[in-house]
Design brief:
Helix content is 72%, strand content 1%. It is an all-alpha fold. The chain has a two-stranded antiparallel sheet. The protein is globular.
């Protein structure tokens, strides 16, 4: 009987072991390049922000910028306190979270634990469509539909107010909360459900006392991602909330967020290189640092809450 060849043979159209090694090396290099591009992009953004923010802080004291309660860089006398923009940003983001988190979590629980498969197959694609609507459309809806309704309920409300922005931004972040939370709830091991049912628990008890606590870290991650999305929203907030920087917690008044201010000054009316123009980069750097700190805190919270299953 003839002995088999000691080295592997390849059929026509297949790669040799050496070819597989070259292919793996090429794929590895491509993935490394993608990671490097992401890192370089982030570093480039930070460098651009710093290159324009440092000359700004040479003319405006950082303490005045961070603690000032009046923001009026385009008028005389000029004021550069960013607290009104911070207040407007987190008023809108907080209001949107208060609207979207209970509604989104309730919808996710329904789709995961109570909805029939046919219902789930219909609702989830609709939510994906909602996530794809441009933000400027939401801003237009806020102006022509939400604002009149708000003023009917609260006649003292301004035409453009923070409540308009809270509602439309809350609707915008709903798909993110629902989709991520529903995926996390469905990923809870079936053994936990069966164990709870074996002990005589009802459907509601299993859902609220077993499944939701087991998926809490993932649910919190969806909340934090949604809040971060709300903080960075631009066009809908610019159209719905107004353009008056105020240090207020009243959602019925006109406010201005950091992103809305950047849009206002970026329209080309301010000379490039001027102090007023550099406020764009100072505000952008503040927004970048705020989002970074929010993500760092979120990662710390998630690391303390994460559940592991064998």
């Amino acid at each position: 009987m003839a002995s088999l060849p000691s080295s592997p043979t390849t059929a026509k159209g297949t790669l040799s072991p050496g070819g597989f090694r070259w292919l793996e090396a090429a794929i590895h290099g491509l993935l490394v390049a993608c990671a490097v591009v992401s890192v370089i992009t982030t570093i480039g953004i930070v460098l651009v922000l710093l290159s324009q923010s440092i000359p700004f802080f040479r003319q405006v004291a950082p303490l005045e910028f961070l603690t000032g309660t009046k923001w009026a860089p385009l008028f005389e006398p000029q004021h550069f306190g960013i607290l009104p923009l911070f207040c407007g940003t987190f008023l809108v983001a907080g209001g949107a979270a208060m609207f979207a988190i209970p509604l989104g979590l309730g919808t996710a629980i329904y789709l995961s634990e109570y909805a029939a498969p046919a219902t789930r197959d219909i609702v989830k694609p609709l939510l994906e469509i909602l996530a794809g609507i441009p933000s400027v459309v939401f801003g237009y809806v806020a102006v022509v539909f939400v604002s009149p309704l708000v003023r009917q309920v609260f006649p003292q409300a301004d035409l453009f107010n923070a409540l308009n922005a809270c509602i439309v931004v809350g609707i915008m972040i709903l798909p993110m909360i629902i989709s991520l939370s529903e995926d996390v709830l469905r990923s809870v091991p079936r053994s936990l459900r069966e164990g709870a049912y074996a002990l005589g628990a009802t459907k509601l008890d299993v859902t609220l006392r077993v499944i939701v606590p087991a998926a809490l870290s993932g649910i919190m991650a969806s909340f934090i991602l949604a809040i971060t999305r709300a903080v960075g929203e631009t066009m809908a907030v610019s159209l719905a909330a107004g353009a008056e920087a105020k240090l207020t917690l009243n959602p019925l008044t006109s406010v201005q967020t950091m992103t809305a201010y950047i849009v206002e000054v970026s329209q080309g009316d301010i000379p490039a290189g001027s102090l007023e123009h550099r406020t764009i980069f100072a505000v952008g750097l503040s927004l970048f640092v705020s989002t970074l700190l929010l993500n760092v805190c979120a990662q710390w919270i998630l690391s303390r809450m994460r559940e592991k299953y064998e």
